[in-house]
Amino acid sequence: MPDDPLFTLDVHGQVVEWSKEAEHRFRRPAAEVLGQGVFDLLGSEGSGRPWTITPLTERSPERGWAVRAEDEGMPGLSEAILDAVFTQADIGLHILDPQLRVLRINPVAIGMRGVPQERVIGLPAVEAYAPLGIHLDESLLHEVLVTGRPVRDILLSSRPFADPEREHIVSMSVHRLSDQAERALGLVATTVDVTDRERAQARLRLLHKARERIGTSLDVERTAGELVDVAVPDFADSAVVALTDGVLQGKAPELLSRGGEILLRCTAAGSSHHDCPVPPAGSILLPGLFGAQFPTSPVILAPSAPKRPGPADSVATPRLVAPLSARGQIFGMVAFERRPGGSPFTAGDVDLAKGITTRTAVHLENALRFTREHIVMTALQSWPLRPERQTQRAAEIAQRHRAAGSGGGSWFDTLPLPGARVALVVGQVEHPGLSTVATMSRVRTAVHSLTTLDLDPHELLARLQSTVLRLAREQGDVERLHEPTVHCTFAVHDPVSGRFDIARAGRSLFAIVRPDGTVDTSPVDEGPLLGEEGPPFASAGHVLPEGSTICLASPSLSEQEGPTVDRLAAALGHPARSPEDMADDVEGLLAPDRVLLVARTRRLPARDVWECDVATESQAVSDARKRAEACLRAWGLAIDPFAASLVVSELVTNAVRYGAAPITLRLVRGDSTLTCEVDDSALTAPHLRHARAVDEGGRGLHICATLAESWGVRYGEEHKTVWAELHEPSVEMTASPSPDETGDVGG
Fold it and tell me: What is the DSSP letter of 484?
């Protein structure tokens, strides 16, 4: 239609619509022209043509112009557009001559700068705008004037006289003005105040920076320091992060409440300006720093009085305070300050502070949860510093634990067994975490309980399998976590015979070094994990010479993390070194959160072990008792001789009556204990009976259970051993000796 405009400009003088007629007349497609400034068209196709420029008020809520072609007698494009833009544009316009002096500025530019026009006209541009804090690059203006290539969207900071307390950001574009002969007539510079846009983008960048840099560790104090590093100086000139004492101690945070008193301690602080001092880390902070009452959401406080008296007493200090809270729990507070006279905080800054502090509070919650779980894991996964005294007679033990804080679920134990024997246990629950450490604690307790039954290592793992399967069912039904699977190696060393029995579930590290230096890195095959298939589990028995070294360690997650066979053999192949030195060498090869046991076997000296064969006839009981009494007198133990004689008589009598040849009586002397053992070839299990008053027998094991501290039965491949352990009387018992203690028991 003839009334339709050839093209339309927006309020910034950029082409937003380009008609088909304009494409035909100017021979330029719309895609090439849209978005260009109207001054890019001056001096080319539009110069000298007649145009009509009318404001667009009916088509858009914002002002713009429609440009139409008219008769030849109408004013040219340059004059028409310049007049319209200078009187109606919402952007600042500055016309410079070839010497870069200011020729003309529009009312918007004057209002934006807050100075009269006559104070600027005729001055060099660099000099005219310097009082506003705008630093123009004169070489850049010369380049546009000479080459004709425009520059767009140059960001300049300024402090206009109309608003000197606030720094403004101005976007400037510069174009050359040329006549028909392409001679430079000067420059036109357009300026737009983009302070709000740039601040919004700066907030987005700062929020992105916070997401990247806050929460890189599970440490409460480090997380607080990361908040300060992000905020200073990009958001504030100083920042103070104060956490509650409970949070710093790893306790649960308090509930967020309005008006409550909370003890806060400075955890991290930073400042980029000497006018914004910060308190030292660790100091207790008074509530005044965060307002009269602790806020429950970010808030801008009224300007505070200056910290230093002097000429700047009337200058305010902008401050913004925000709580560190998540899920109704308060972890601490943050105070952001800008130097006296700095830009005040705005509503956009409040939203940004809320985003940063909310994210920080979530990471603080994660760090606190980790700290509390680590405390629990450390309590559950507590390792004995030294093996018990009883185990030292059977082996010299060195222990190591490469703790990494991730809850690896590894454990080791050295457990004393009757007859001076020692059990060595190393295990690991798969999948690190608090639930894994809890499972480890339950499995470890089960191992302790099962050792009291004096089971064969393979039998013990078979019963432990039932415990792990039950835990798997419980976790699968309730917690929906990984069903636990466990690596476990259980070994028993007998210092009397030198026998070493092993059972292995999984792939725990295991090696034996004999006194001649030979290293056996596979003394028993790998078996199925506890919680998977099995039993049977891999088992083996060895008779080790005295001075052999046993190395047990929890497995690595992969072969790449654990030591190779060659490196392990090289670390262990020095039998002359002490177990502690060998443990130091092997520990360096282990992955984090792994445990290590190095045990050097010992044999009991002959003077501490006495044994004799017993015939399978009733008269042999008296002979065995007399010989045992003679041995006890020679040893000089403070054991009640009557109780010892009676226990020996009852154990031998049971073996003669119900056992099978060969029968052997053995006495093992400890520091304060006496162990009586009777071996026979019958595999029938003895059990306690409750004899009636008229019964002549059935009281043997009951008597042993009454007189001895403990008793039990263990089975070998072709025999069983019934044992009872007696202890020397304690100090309280020896304080008032009974008459029987001074007598002599005959045979």
Answer: P
